[in-house]
Amino acid sequence: MARGSGGATAVLALVLLCVLLHGDFAESKVYTVGDRAGWALSSGGWPRGKRFRAGDVLLFKYGRGAHNVVAVNAAGYKSCSAARGGRTYNSGSDRVTLARGTNYFICSVPGHCQAGMKMAVTAA
């Protein structure tokens, strides 16, 4: 083995580690749904133009008691109905980690989903 090749190997390993840490394996992002307006009746179009990844976190901010967030399937999204026993968030500051594929959310307060308080977010 040539002299100094151990140092070159260590440098190469360090460069590779840096590339991995800054590439696709980087830390997930946290997105505040609706930006400054928060989770509201007008939030349905908020995901447009954004790129989400599995593991990213959606932060739903809203007045506690005024709204909620319910994770639903495609049928629940379309019909504005939550399945019995489904996951409902109601803290006013809810963190939801995205799964790969399309993630669906509604507000189950009567009339809110029908007024547009629902959202579909697709994570790569």
TrEMBL record:
Keyword Disulfide bond annotated: yes
Gene Ontology cellular-component terms listed: plasma membrane
InterPro entries to which the protein is assigned, alphabetical: BlueCu_1_BS, Cupredoxin, Phytocyanin-like, Phytocyanin_dom, Plantacyanin
Signal peptide annotation: 1-26
Entry keyword set: Copper, Disulfide bond, Metal-binding, Signal
Phytocyanin domain residues: 29-124
The keyword Nucleotide-binding is assigned to this record: no
CDD domains attached to this UniProt entry: Plantacyanin
GO molecular function, one term: electron transfer activity
Listed name of the protein: Plantacyanin
